[in-house]
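Review form for a predicted model. The reviewer records the input and the model, then writes brief findings.
Reviewer: anonymous (R2)
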Amino acid sequence: MRVSTIGFTQSTLAGVRRAATALQEATERTQTGLRVASPSDDPGGAASIMAASSSLRAIEQYRRNVNSAQARIGLEEGVLNQVQDTLERAKQLGIQEGGTSNAQSRQVAQMEIDQLRDLLVQVANTRHEGEFLFGGDQSLTTPITSKNAPYTATTTTGQRSVEISASQYVPVTHNASDVFLDSGVLAALDQLSVALGANDTAGVTASLTSIDGALGAVQNLVGEVGARTNQLDVALSNLDALDTTLQVFKSDLQELDLEEAVTHLVARQNAYQAALLTTSRVMNLSLADYLR
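Model under review:
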C-alpha cells in the first residue's frame, strides 16, 4: 500500500497533537486536583457529583433552618421563664395579701399585679427578626391587641414550623393563645387584681388556685420547648454527619490522588517528548536516506 507524503505528514502531526492534548489535560488535572472538571470527563461521575452538591446545598439550608429555630426557641424559653417568675411573684403577693393585710396594702399590691400583667401583654408581642415570636401562622400580625380583659388574640391557632430535613417539620414556638390565654396566665392575674381591688380576702385566696394552674400549664410548655430543643440538637448532629459523608463521597469522585496525578503527568510528558522526537526524525528523512 502506497502512503503519500502529505498523508504521512498529517498522520504524524495528528499523533503529536493527540499527545499534546493528553499532556495539557494531565497538566490541568494536576494543577486543579480534579479528576472530573467537566461532565465530559466522566458523565456518570459528573451526575453523582451534581447530586451530591445538590444534597449539600439542601443540608446547608436545613442547617440554617435549625439555627433559626434554635434562636426562636431560646427566646421563647426566656419568655416562659419570665412568665413563671411573674406568676411566682403574683403568688407571693396573693399569699401575703390573703392574710391580715388591710385595704390600702391590697391596693398597692393590685397596682403591682396590674403592672406585671401589662408587662406580660407586652412580652406576648415580642418580635424576632421582624416577626412576632408568638404570632403563630400569622407572624406579621400583633398577637394580643388589648391590654385588659377580655384580651383579643389574633392567633388562637397555628404554630410556626421549620423544615429540618426532607419533609420533616418541627414546630418552633407556641402562639400567644397557648402561652398567655389558654394557659390561664392573664386570667389568673386579672382574678387576683380584681380581688385585691375589692379588698376580697376570700377572692385573693381563691385566685391562688388559678395561679397554680397557670404555673402548671406554663411548666408543660417549658417541657415541650425542651423536647423541641433536643429534637433540633439531634437533627443538627445528623445534618453534620450527613454533610461529612457527602463531602467525602464527592471528594472521592471529583478529586485526584496527587501521587497518581503526578505519575500520569510524567507519563504524558514522556509520550509527548517521544512523539516530538519521532516526528522530528521522520520528517528529516530524505530520498537519499531511503536509497542507502
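Findings: Helices lie at 5-32, 43-97, 103-124, 176-181, 185-197, 201-254, 258-283, 287-291.
Further findings: The domain at 51-155+162-250 is CATH 1.20.1330.10 (f41 fragment of flagellin, N-terminal domain).
Recommendation: see findings above.
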